[in-house]
Amino acid sequence: MVDFSKIPSPCYVLDEELLEQNLAVIDRVRREAGVEVIVALKACAMWSIFPELARHSDGATASSAAEARLVYEEFGSPAHTYAPVYTDRNIEEILRCSSHLTFNSLNQFRRFGPRAILQGISCGLRVNPGYSPVEVDLYNPCVAGSRLGIPAEELGELPAGVEGLHFHVLCESRPHHLRLALEALEERFGGLLDKVKWLNMGGGHLMTHAGYDCDELIGVLRGFKARHPHLRLILEPGSAFTWRTGYLVSTVEDIVRNGGVRTALLDVSFACHMPDCLEMPYKPAIVGAHDPEEGEERWRMGGNSCLAGDYCGDWAFDREPKIGDRIVFEDMIHYTMVKTTMFNGVAHPAIAIARKSGKPDIIREFGYEDFKTRMS
Fold first, then answer.
1. Average of pLDDT values for 271-292?
2. How far is Cα 163 from Cα 101, in angstroms, rounded to an integer?
3. Looking at the chain, which terminus has fewer C-beta neighbours within 10 angstroms, N or C?
């Protein structure tokens, strides 16, 4: 267990031992399913752990020129890159740092594909199979009118030079969702699968979740591979690599009461540091807390920005919070640290790794110069 008293507040803390457990699961899927599993930086761009991730993956995927450069320079290999749109301003950097480049539309491929092909980059198209199990429209790439991926009716023949297809329709999903997505793909784009060299199945494969059936996933992948033996199969999960591997440590700085509501004011912000809690919305778990039952004292957690809605709740605590207590939010490494902002000039939390030795490794702390640089 991490000794949170040795960690600065606020701070994102990755537990090295928990990360290793996830990587063992990913290695098993790679080995037994015979597929490539690459890391999606959009979920976690903590490049201090890239050496470890590189040993247990087949590369990394980027969604921008900055991510592609980070993969190229720190992961040690060119990126598999996909972005909804490329521009004349960023395409040269993306081409320099990528081995695979996926285009969101035929227009984008016609505009930039020939340059990529001339540089030996393997080009693909993102397709929209018309199926996604995601219920929240904000996260559903197949919602009506989606801008993401080429619909089947717009893609008759593959343009010359296209070597791969890509789809991304899952989000923290299970193996049967992938099976349904592959069935939709074969139904709508089956005539193209024999004409490409690789298929990227995107992210959302939450194989490190305690309730995830990896045997079923391996079976789905083996079955598809048997139907299409010539294809390189690629998965690019993001959350799965760092799922439940770390925390956001905060401190109670004040307690306020208003209209029967008790709020612990923290040195972190939901708006700045945990925006998914407001966007989704969802309520994260807190160490030593639980969902309140009838009659239990309820506590709201309040952020330190000026936004009126910068709060989340409610929780009941095993021990009543007091000023100076640590509040430790669970599962805050994936899709949280990458969304941190400096709205209001609120500083980023520090970043640390809880080493197996028990001694924390403080990777980075932030201050005024970081804010000034971002705002210049």
1. 95
2. 10
3. C
